[in-house]
């Protein structure tokens, strides 16, 4: 924050930039250490970074003091709003710091791959259960190494929470550059209370980092237009590189934003000035090349191209549309835009309350409208497939990160604001709105629709703050105060609802009876039961059996498929080497293993040529197959 401080800008903006830069630095340190195959080098680099940070803070302590006073003054001036927001943010922090992770993707690859990195002491994985573990970008996932290297998972969601805070603060700071304080507060609260955005704040998925990257780029680009200098150019390059390393869908934002901002910068700053910045600081940019190459995952794309003849190693084949028919492509893209619009009619928590208390499902009502009018037109074009059948379009009144959307403000304020900024905004606002619309069009036309593509578009909604502030600022003064007060009140209600009613980590239900049923804190014994979600999924104690029956220092062959939750097995037995393999490879090399762990798959061991003993087998009550076998008995 102190490094990014600008006396002409809001403190919130500097805080937002500071949080994001910490992601960049930590990710760079971890990636560098693993690329050198010396993971422990990260500890030394972190220590050096801490010492440099302390020295920098001491040298600029007046800025820090000013920031603390400014924050205190703001809280004092807006006690009720600040109080409610702080309580909700603190509660969300406790969820990510104490409650164990549960996201399906994280159990199969986001967090699981970090254990594989640590075990192999390398980012180039050869043995995986899911192709995404080794082939997809890892700029955000690698951050969790900071916690998982301690062989525990308390706090693994903190970086998602920080990304959420960064976006909220950045939205306020960006809005304050041209809007009043009250408009900026209302805008920040709109973004803060977006339902799916709140849910992602307590998740361990990487999508939320794309929104943080977009806000970072908008802020730095705004600074660059006002103050063209080498620092802002470098920060913008780092922001784009990190966003791309967090999730490949960020490229759908990079293209429109890069082209639009470059055109605007050439017009407002001039190519001569930009050339001078680069030419006079060529050594600076030369030194910056190495960190950018690492952060941007260029090394990973080169590796994937060499080993799999595909930059993503084929890991995106199921979500990227494959078609040779342009007409069907257009129909599918337009169909996805219509589907996303229907999903944007998300009246949380009213839909959830109506279903639970009135037995009326708003989601089903809008799904029927789509099926009657648009299904005959778009059919399965643009849809993803499960097996040989396309997914059915269906809205769900379920406050869960995999199925929820972005609340009532998505369609009532954010969508109109983006188009309003495109039509009535200045050139910089037009670039921002075009960047967001371009992102949405690319996602709609290039990625298939699935029930969980909701998370891909978090960037579109969460990074729209400047457009929202611009539209709210245009409200006639005689109506503005009342409208803003209403927006603020509704936003606070939505924020509280999203914090309490998240069904994957519920605090309460829709009635007094349901509210006092066991919540996530009692179910997990205040976070002490780290295997709660594993038992819930498997409906048995296989993870505990694995922990208790396998001898430390052993080597375990793992037979599993891409949908298997392998995370907990690495968590509970860190002194054991668990090597994903195939049945054929295992039979050819069974002598090098001490145990065989079979998950979600049949294990036919009739011809392995070695004695073995069955230690554990899943029962008929278990949700999924499983065996633990001791070899060389």
From TrEMBL:
<feature type="transmembrane region" description="Helical">
    <location>
        <begin position="41"/>
        <end position="58"/>
    </location>
</feature>
<protein>
    <recommendedName>
        <fullName>Glycosyltransferase RgtA/B/C/D-like domain-containing protein</fullName>
    </recommendedName>
</protein>
<feature type="transmembrane region" description="Helical">
    <location>
        <begin position="483"/>
        <end position="503"/>
    </location>
</feature>
<feature type="transmembrane region" description="Helical">
    <location>
        <begin position="429"/>
        <end position="449"/>
    </location>
</feature>
<feature type="transmembrane region" description="Helical">
    <location>
        <begin position="282"/>
        <end position="302"/>
    </location>
</feature>
<feature type="transmembrane region" description="Helical">
    <location>
        <begin position="456"/>
        <end position="477"/>
    </location>
</feature>
<feature type="transmembrane region" description="Helical">
    <location>
        <begin position="154"/>
        <end position="174"/>
    </location>
</feature>
<feature type="transmembrane region" description="Helical">
    <location>
        <begin position="208"/>
        <end position="226"/>
    </location>
</feature>
<keyword id="KW-0812">Transmembrane</keyword>
<feature type="transmembrane region" description="Helical">
    <location>
        <begin position="403"/>
        <end position="423"/>
    </location>
</feature>
<feature type="transmembrane region" description="Helical">
    <location>
        <begin position="12"/>
        <end position="35"/>
    </location>
</feature>
<feature type="transmembrane region" description="Helical">
    <location>
        <begin position="233"/>
        <end position="262"/>
    </location>
</feature>
<keyword id="KW-1133">Transmembrane helix</keyword>
<keyword id="KW-0472">Membrane</keyword>
<feature type="transmembrane region" description="Helical">
    <location>
        <begin position="79"/>
        <end position="99"/>
    </location>
</feature>
């Amino acid at each position: 924050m102190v490094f990014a401080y600008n006396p002409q800008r809001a403190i919130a903006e500097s805080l937002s930039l500071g949080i994001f830069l910490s992601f960049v630095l930590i990710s760079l340190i971890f990636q560098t250490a693993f690329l050198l195959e010396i993971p422990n080098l990260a500890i030394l680099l972190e220590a050096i970074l801490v010492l440099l940070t302390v020295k920098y803070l001491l040298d600029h302590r007046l800025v820090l003091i000013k920031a603390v006073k400014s924050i205190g003054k703001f809280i004092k001036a807006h006690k009720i709003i600040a109080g409610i927001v702080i309580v909700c943010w603190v509660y969300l922090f406790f969820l990510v710091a104490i409650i164990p992770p549960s996201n399906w993707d994280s159990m199969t690859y986001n967090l699981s791959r970090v254990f594989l990195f640590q075990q192999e002491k390398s980012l180039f994985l050869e043995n995986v259960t899911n192709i995404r573990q080794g082939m997809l970008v890892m700029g955000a996932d690698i951050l969790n190494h900071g916690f998982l290297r301690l062989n525990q998972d308390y706090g693994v969601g903190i970086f998602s929470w920080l990304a959420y805070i960064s976006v909220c603060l950045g939205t306020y700071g960006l809005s304050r550059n041209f809007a009043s304080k009250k408009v900026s507060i209302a805008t920040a609260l709109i973004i803060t209370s977006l339902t799916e955005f709140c849910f992602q704040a307590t998740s361990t998925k990487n999508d939320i980092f794309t929104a943080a990257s977009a806000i970072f780029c908008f802020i730095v680009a705004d600074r660059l237009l006002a103050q063209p200098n080498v620092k802002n150019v470098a920060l913008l390059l780092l922001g784009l590189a990190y966003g791309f390393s967090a999730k490949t869908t960020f490229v759908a934002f990079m293209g429109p934003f890069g082209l639009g901002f470059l055109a605007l910068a050439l017009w407002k700053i001039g190519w001569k000035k930009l050339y001078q910045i680069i030419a006079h600081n060529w050594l600076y940019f030369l030194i910056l090349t190495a960190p950018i190459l690492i952060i941007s995952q260029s090394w990973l794309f080169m590796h994937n191209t060499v080993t799999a003849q595909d930059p993503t190693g084929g890991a995106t084949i199921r979500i990227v549309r494959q078609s040779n028919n342009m007409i069907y492509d257009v129909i599918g893209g337009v169909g996805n835009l219509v589907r996303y619009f229907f999903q944007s009619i998300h009246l949380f928590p009213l839909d959830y309350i109506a279903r639970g208390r009135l037995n009326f499902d708003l989601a089903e009502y809008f799904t029927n409208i789509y099926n009657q009018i648009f299904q005959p037109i778009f059919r399965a074009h643009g849809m993803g497939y499960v097996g040989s059948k396309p997914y059915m379009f269906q809205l769900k009144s379920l406050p869960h990160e995999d199925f929820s959307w972005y609340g009532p403000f998505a369609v009532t304020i954010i969508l109109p604001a983006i188009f309003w900024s495109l039509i009535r905004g200045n050139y910089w606002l037009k670039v921002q709105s075009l960047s967001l619309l371009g992102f949405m069009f690319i996602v709609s036309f290039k990625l298939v629709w699935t029930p969980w593509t909701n998370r891909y578009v978090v960037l579109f909604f969460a990074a729209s703050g400047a457009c929202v502030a611009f539209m709210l600022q245009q409200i006639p003064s005689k109506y503005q105060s009342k409208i803003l007060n209403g927006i603020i009140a509704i936003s606070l209600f939505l924020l509280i609802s999203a914090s309490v009613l998240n069904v994957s980590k519920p605090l309460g239900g829709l009635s007094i009876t349901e509210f006092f049923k066991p919540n996530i804190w009692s179910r997990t014994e205040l976070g002490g039961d780290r295997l709660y979600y594993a038992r819930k999924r498997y409906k048995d104690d296989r993870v505990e059996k694995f922990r208790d029956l396998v001898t430390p220092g052993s080597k375990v062959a793992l037979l599993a498929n891409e949908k298997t939750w392998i995370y907990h097995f690495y968590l509970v037995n860190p002194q054991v080497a668990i090597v994903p393999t195939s049945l054929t490879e295992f039979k050819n090399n069974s002598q090098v293993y001490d145990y065989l762990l079979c998950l979600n798959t049949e294990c036919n061991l009739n011809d392995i040529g070695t004695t073995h003993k069955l230690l554990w087998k899943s029962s008929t009550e278990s949700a999924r197959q499983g065996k633990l076998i001791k070899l060389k008995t």
